[in-house]
Description:
The protein contains 19 helices and 20 strands. By secondary structure, it is of the alpha/beta class. It folds into four domains: 8-29 and 124-253, HAD superfamily/HAD-like (Rossmann fold, 3-Layer(aba) Sandwich); 30-121, no CATH class; 269-360 and 442-522, Rossmann fold; 364-438, 2-Layer Sandwich (Alpha-Beta Plaits), CATH 3.30.70.1020. The chain has an eight-stranded mixed sheet, with helices on both faces. A hairpin with a 2-residue loop joins strand 16 and strand 17.
Amino acid sequence: MAHGETAYSIPANDFEAVIFDLDGVVTDTASVHAAAWKRAFDDFLYSYAAGKEIAFQPFDRGDDYRIYVDGKPRLDGVRSFLESRGITLPEGDPEDPPEAETIHGLGNKKNADFLKQVREKGAEVYESTVDFIHSVKRHGLKTAIISSSKSCAMILDAVKLSNLFDVRVDGVDSEIMGIQGKPAPDIFIEAARQLKVKPERAVVIEDAISGVQAGRAGNFGLVIGIARTGDRASLLAVGADVAVEDLSEICITGDFETPEPLPSALDAFERISRQAEGKRMAVFLDYDGTLTPIVENPDQAVMHEDMRAVVIELSRHCPIGIISGRDLRDVMDKVKIDSIVYAGSHGFDIAGPSGLGSENQIGMEFSPVLDRAEKELSQELVSIQGVLVERKKFAIAIHYRRANTGMVETIERVVDEVTARHSDLRKAYGKKIFELQPDIDWHKGKALLSLLSTLKLDEEGVLPFYIGDDVTDEDAFREISGWGIGIVVRDKTYETAADYSLKHPDEVREFLLKLITFCRRSA
């Protein structure tokens, strides 16, 4: 990101996290929202004016949107605008059809229009914001995304930015948790709570007046307003510490070296081989998306025979382990190699050659609550076509890759409602997936360290590799950063703790073949 015309610098040491609004800050969905609001309100206002025999006064997508609607939960926006016109409507019911002249009916009309536009035209991303987020993460700060929209998950999936944020709090969470809408600071405070940082140690970045007011009311350490239309004065007047037209005007300062673009593990194999010279290698891999391509139905993710042959051959030269979110028996049945170690359920369940095996007893304590949550999810999601509720031994995965994108909001609401009823569980994210997991401090990174210890590979002279493709693999990359080699499998650039990259499973196979050649040469 260029900072030749930087208007403000943020010292990284003064803060621990940055919280971004979605609409108008990360994505240009604000204009789509405004257009959908205008169509919904104008249809209603025209009919209302005719019935009252008064002049039709259309919704202004400039001032009306900015003052009464922008940044607020959908129903609050309906109420706020109608109140400004002296119009009172019944609340109605959440299931009201779009043509119903109720608060819920108008909200549903606007939402159906918005989702249709996003599905047909997609969403634009502010690249300067994405660059800024990468800079934030390179400086070691945590990130969160907030939105009053219930379509946040769908939009982030569509633009492939979900992996940039450590925490997400959206309109679905707000409804389930009873979070007040902006200008109340509740949604930002909840994001800070989940990030485990105090508000005074966090930065809020907003484009809406109500959002800036919320950041100020929450006593956040720094509130930045983005005035994309040039009206900085309004944002400063309601509490922004600084207002800019674009995040390219802001930079993060601190002691760090801008890393080189993540090199390909294939192109940099000579460098990797020099690092491995004289050391004992241990290779750990994710399964889905790493050893086999991502598919719509997880049961169809079968490893090709040529990949299996490569893994078997490499296991003759060094220890191999697979760490997967799948159940232990599931991943073992799919890989079908006896000479390697398996860690299923993100490492809760371990098995391997020579009788190696262990089961996380803490995880076993969660079986009853997982049973209840699975039953509730299955009952409440059964009517939504394309949703798959997959019960694992230590988790429940809700796959929505095959569901209509317009149903993601409903799916997430159900997941949040079930999570709220079971405080022992937490919601996690993956590629087109929600997952309920035991709410304990356990992840693939800790599973990797546990395996290294169990296999007596956590000692000097051992070089561990970890290869994975998902957000859940970042914990493993972080655990071995600086002493092992992390390789991310991705088709699009994003911030990662890995050292190298590969594009797809075919390149993973090519890399493993290079390791085999290296091992034979070094023997």
